[in-house]
Structures are given as structure tokens and as C-alpha cells.
Amino acid sequence: MEFESKTFKNEDFTERSFKNSSFIDCIFEDCNISNVNLEDTKIQSCKFVNCKILGLNFSKCAKFLLSFSFENCLISMCDFSNLDLKKTKFNGCQIFECHFFGTNLIYSVFEDSNLKGSRFQDTNLSYVSFTTAKNYSIDPNKNFIRKTKFAIPEVIGLLDAFDIELE
């Protein structure tokens, strides 16, 4: 299946397979995209708005020109590992229990997003903005952090990796 400049609205894709499909410049709005097979799926310049995205393994997508953005989405138990996600926008999202291992997130933005339980390891977080994000826990010894933007009080999440007590 190949889709270009198509808008999917109020669709339920639960348990479907997008294997070997192509989505270019598509918009997914108010969709349920849970437990979908993304093996060799091409996602290029796609936007997800107000979607429920559960259990997706984005690391199985075709890597060439992979790009997407998320706005006001529930993203839970998804794997973004070993992907080049430069300049990816996560705006107003609930990003729960997701994995970002070996991910390149340089210049990405987590605006007004809740990252509870999400894990970052061996990830390039250079120039990433977490200024309005909350509930993140990032080990600065296990990630590349350069000119990354944080705000008080949430920056305390950088200390979770250390066995210390704050009073």
C-alpha cells in the first residue's frame, strides 16, 4: 500500500499491518494506531495529531528519510531505538514507557510533553529542548548531552541516576 498526502481521520488501525507500506506527507488525526506492524514501513514527513499510539516498534520502519511529528498524542510502550530522528517534534504528548536507545534526537523538541517512564540510553540529546517537558529521567553519563535545554524544577530528573537524596 502506498499513500501520499492522504489524511486519515478517526480511523482505528488496531492490530493491523502496515508492513512494506509507504506513507508520505500523510496526516493521522484522532486515530487509534495500536499494536500495528511497522516492519519495513516507509514514514516520511507524516504528522500524528490527537492519536493513540500504543506498542509500536518504530525501529522496524524503513530508515531512509524517516520523519514524523506528534501533536497531543498518547504514545505508550513504543520503541524509537537506533533511529535518526533529528528535529522531531513531540508537542503536548504523553510519552509513557517508551525507549530511546541509540537514538539521534539532535534538535528535537519535547514541548509540554510528559515522559513518565521513558528511557534514554546512548542517545544524542544535543540541542534538544526539554524546557516545558516533565517527568523525564535522563542519565547524563549514558547519553550525549550538549547545549540541551532544561528548566527548573524538572531538571532534577538528571539526578535520578545518582544515589543521592535531595532535601
Structure description:
With 167 residues, the protein is mainly β. The protein has two domains: 71 residues; 88 residues, Pectate Lyase C-like (3 Solenoid), CATH 2.160.20. It is built from no helices and 15 strands. The strands form four sheets. It has a six-stranded parallel beta sheet, with no helix packed on it. It has a four-stranded parallel beta sheet with strand order 5-8-10-12, with no helix packed on it. A three-stranded parallel beta sheet has the order 1-3-6, with no helix packed on it. The mean pLDDT is 96.
Characteristic terms for this protein:
four-stranded parallel β-sheet; Pectate Lyase C-like; mainly beta; single chain; 167 residues; six-stranded parallel β-sheet
Overall CATH class of the largest domain: Mainly Beta
Portion of residues in beta strands equals 25-35%
Which range best describes the helical content: under 10%, 10-25%, 25-40%, 40-55%, 55-70% or over 70%? under 10%
| The CATH homology group name of the largest domain | E3 ubiquitin-protein ligase SopA
Task: For the record, give the distance between the C-alpha atoms at the N and C termini, rounded to a whole number.
Answer: 56 Å
**Count of distinct strands:** 15
Structural class: mainly beta
Output the radius of gyration: 16 Å
Described by strand count, sense and barrel closure, the largest sheet is: 6 strands, parallel
Mean pLDDT comes to 96
Strand order of the largest sheet: 2-4-7-9-11-14
Choose one word for the global shape: elongated
The CATH architecture name of the largest domain reads: 3 Solenoid
The tally of domains stands at 2
Q: Give the H and E element order.
A: EEEEEEEEEEEEEEE
In DSSP terms (H or I, runs of 4 or more residues), the helix count works out at 0
Question: What low-confidence regions span 5 or more consecutive residues with pLDDT below 50?
Answer: none
CATH topology (level 3) name of the largest domain: Pectate Lyase C-like
